[in-house]
Specification:
With about 240 residues, the protein is mainly alpha-helical. The chain is built from 10 helices and 3 strands; from the N terminus they run βαααααααββααα.
């Protein structure tokens, strides 16, 4: 299943989110074999856990967030950032959101290194930072409606699904994969977990300033915009409880 959009308008142009997406795309084109083919740039700026553990190549903690291993890797990450990033940027402010994004990416990197400090396989991708965006989104808008594409072979359907279910299932899947043998598939599940948890924790001060549990009670977990409550078709009844 893939989230393709949310029913949660942002009132300001998400320049930071758009810029992050653009930079990731440009860097991918520069390093892709069919593009600039700058393989050395990719290797030099990936995150090498064993190197960081031994006190070298620290720059990879930051630069790995702008590198991707393939077009599907890039497309999936940018889709999630497109869906969830604008609302956090709108609520946090542009500079705060950018700092939040990088902090989540760093937390994700350190979580992956802690899980496997001697790994000699490079880690790349913005998914740890984007996982933090998803964690923050879940805390602020647990009942926001997410249009999710479900598919099986040639059949597909789009359902509007509450954010707590979409993001909760995603996080549960990361935990399951990390705790089972399927974690060894080239995916940094621990980075996803670390980024997501960091996103929730870093969003807590904002959530408390908004009223904490009172904010949830006033909005019933929905985005506090009239537009977000329109067209309730296909929403599970749990999102309508008071």
């Amino acid at each position: 299943m893939f989230p393709i959009r949310d029913h949660n308008p942002s009132y300001n142009t998400p320049w930071v989110t758009w810029a992050l997406i653009a930079i990731n795309i440009v860097v991918y084109v520069m390093t892709a074999p069919w593009g600039g083919d700058l393989r050395e740039l990719w290797l030099d700026n990936a995150l090498w856990p064993a190197a960081v553990t031994h006190g070298v190549a620290w720059h990879g903690l930051f630069t790995h967030m702008f590198l991707h291993a393939g077009i599907l890797h890039l497309a999936g990450n940018m889709l999630f950032l497109w869906v969830f990033g604008d609302n956090l940027e709108d609520r946090m402010g542009r500079i705060a959101f950018l700092l939040f994004y990088f902090a989540c990416g760093l937390a994700a990197a350190f979580a992956q290194i802690a899980a496997n400090p001697d790994a000699t396989v490079p880690m790349v991708g913005a998914s740890g930072a984007i996982a933090g965006v998803m964690g923050g989104y879940l805390l602020l808008y647990p009942k926001a409606r997410i249009d999710v594409l479900f598919y099986f072979l040639v059949f597909f359907k789009i359902w509007a699904t509450p954010a707590w279910l979409v993001l909760g299932l995603w996080f549960t899947l990361q935990l399951f994969n990390e705790l089972t043998s399927s974690a060894s598939g080239g995916v940094a599940h621990m980075a996803h977990i670390g980024g997501f948890v960091a996103g929730v924790l870093l969003t807590l001060p904002l959530w408390l300033r908004l009223g904490g549990p009172l904010f949830w009670r006033l909005t019933h977990g929905h985005p506090p915009f009239p537009e977000a409550r329109e067209s309730q078709t296909n929403i599970p009844t749990v999102t309508r409880r008071r």
